[in-house]
Amino acid sequence: MNILVTGGAGYIGSHTVRELVTREHRVIVLDNLSRGHRAAVGGALLVRGDTSDTRLMEELFKKHKIEAVMHFAASSQVGESVRHPSGYYHNNVVKGLALLDAMVQAGVPYLVFSSTAAVYGEPKEVPITEEHPALPTNPYGATKLALESAMRWYSDAYGLRFTSLRYFNAAGADPAGDIGEDHDPETHLIPLALRVALGILPHLEIFGDDYPTPDGTCIRDYVHVNDLAAAHVLALDKMASGGPSTVYNLGNGSGYSVLEVIKAAGEVTAKPVKVKFGARRPGDPAVLVAGSQKIKDELGWEPRFVDLRSIVDTAWRWHHSHLAGYEDRNEH
C-alpha cells in the first residue's frame, strides 16, 4: 500500500515508518523538520513541507497514488500548549483539517491518527477505558480531541474511515539502537533520567512527592514505541479489510511511579541518577493507567515490551550511543 506518514521524522512517526517499510509498504514521509530529524527516516521518501500547503498535498496524493494516511504531525508538549494555545490550535487543528480536506479531495479513504490520553483529563477511574469521559485539561489534549471530533463528522459526510490511537506514555527506542527519542527541549522522564546517568544533566527534578501513591510520586503507564508502531499497522489493516472507524487506547495496563522509573534507569545503566524534589505541577493526576483491552480483543494487539526494565534498556542503547541525539539541529 502507498502510505503518507505526516510527522514521520519524529519520535513515534519514525518508528512507525520503519515498521511499515519492514512490512513492504511504500512510504512517503511529509515533515517540516521543525521537531523531526532527517536522519530518523530510513527506507522512505522524505518530503519537507506540511499539510497546510494545499498545492503540495494535492501533488503528493496524485503523484504517489496515496491509499492511506498516518497522521503524527503535531505539537505535543502539555506545558507549552498552556503557554501558547494559539500555536497548538493552528498546528493541531487548522493543519489537521487541511489534511482531512486534502484526503477527501483526493479520495483517500483511510486515516490512522496519533492521539493521546490527554483527551481524558483528570481520571475518574483507573484503568482508563475508551468510554471514560473526554474532558481535557490543557490545549494539547483539547486540540487532539477537536480533530477527533472533526474526523467523526468527516466520516459521516464523506466516508473517510479513521482509527484514533490514544497513547499513554510512549517510551523506549528501536532495539537496533539507531533511532530513538530526541526532543528539544526534552520533557520526558526516561530520557531525562538517562541524561543524568550519562552526566549530561546534574540531577533530575521530581515534581511532587506527596501524591496518594505507594511512594508519593506520580504513576504512569509506559508503552514501548515499537508496540505503538505495530498498533498503527494493525489499525490500518483492519480498516482496509472493512473495519469501521473507531478509537483505541494504547498502554501496557500497568503503572510505574517516577521513583520506580529512576530505579530502573539506575539498574540498567549501573550509574547513579541523582534527584531533587520540587513542587507538584498543576494538573498532574496521581495515577494514569490505560485500559487497552479493546484493541487486544478487536485487533489482537499485544505489547512485546511489557516490563519497565526492557523498555528502559532499549532507550539506554539509543542514548548511550547518541549523546547529542541526531546531530541535525541545524535543519530546524
Question: What does this entry look like structurally?
Answer:
By secondary structure, this protein is an alpha/beta fold. It has two domains: 2-171 and 223-250, Rossmann fold (3-Layer(aba) Sandwich); 189-220 and 253-331, Alpha-Beta Complex (UDP-galactose 4-epimerase, domain 1). The chain contains ten helices and 14 strands. Helix 8 (258-269) crosses helix 10 (308-321). The mean pLDDT is 96.
Could you give the order of the helices and strands?
Answer: EHEEHEHHEHEEHEEEHEEHEEHH
Give the mean pLDDT.
96
Distance between the termini: 30 Å
Give the % helix: 25-40%
CATH architecture verdict of the largest domain? 3-Layer(aba) Sandwich
Instruction: Tell the overall outline.
Output: globular
Unreliable residue runs: none
Give the arrangement of secondary structure elements.
Layout: E1 2-6, H1 11-22, E2 26-31, E3 45-48, H2 54-63, E4 68-71, H3 78-83, H4 85-106, E5 110-116, H5 139-158, E6 161-167, E7 169-171, H6 189-197, E8 204-207, E9 219-220, E10 222-224, H7 225-240, E11 246-250, E12 256-257, H8 258-269, E13 275-278, E14 287-288, H9 293-299, H10 308-321
Parallel strand pairs: 1-2, 1-4, 2-3, 4-5, 5-6, 6-11, 7-10, 8-13, 9-14
Antiparallel strand pairs: 9-12
Helix pairs in contact: 1-7, 2-4, 4-5, 6-8, 6-10, 8-10
Which characteristics define this entry?
332 residues; alpha/beta; Rossmann fold; UDP-galactose 4-epimerase, domain 1; 2 domains; 7-stranded parallel sheet; 3-stranded mixed sheet; 17% strand
Short description:
This protein is α/β, with parallel strands linked by helices.
